Amino acid sequence: MWEALSPWLQTHEYIAIWLEGIALILILGLDCFEWRNQHRERKEHRREVTAQLAVSQKQVELSQEQVEATLRPCVSLSMAPREMEAAVLAVNETDSTVIVRCPGGLIQIENMGVGPAVNIRYEFSTVQPHESSYSHPTGYVAGLAKEGVFLIPVSRTLLAGHDFESLIEYESVSHRKYRTRVTLNDLVITNMRFEVVPQEA
Prior knowledge:
Helix content is 38%, strand content 33%. Helix 1 crosses helix 2. It folds into two domains: 2-69; 75-196, Immunoglobulin-like (Sandwich), CATH 2.60.40. The chain has four helices and ten strands. The protein has helices spanning 2-11, 13-69, 84-88, 156-159, and strands spanning 75-77, 79-81, 98-100, 106-111, 117-126, 138-144, 149-155, 163-171, 177-185, 188-196. By secondary structure, the chain is an alpha+beta fold. A hairpin with a 5-residue loop joins strand 8 and strand 9. The protein is rod-shaped and about 125 Å long.
């Protein structure tokens, strides 16, 4: 059979060359198509893996937040009831019902959170400048257990009669940072804010 076709192929050799060329082009086209499909699949696979990693990372962060919620401290100035008459009459233009607790004439801080607090730093600053110079009390407490209290060396008489803001910064045992701001008007607590300090990237 091939012998019979041989003279025909020799006379029509250019057709055979064209057929080989077409076959090569088809093979190259199929390879290119396959490569593009594989590239698309790899890209899709990478996208899926990235999405799965993002979900896993989110789950880790949520787990960390849940653990942190069971250890979160909350350090603030201790409170005591204000004299009812002073609150009702809004003495010093505030009807707040709580005042700073000062056993023995010293300011007391306490941990109202669900976990211990460490590396506690506090400072008191005057809200408005006074005619005479007042000190700017600051200090450090290494730690405070859950429901723990501590007398800091800040005298009641220093804050009495003036407006101060107290800033207390502290950490949980996992070193997440928090802060509490308390505004005082003649030792009466008029505002209290608890903040989570943003983590550094």
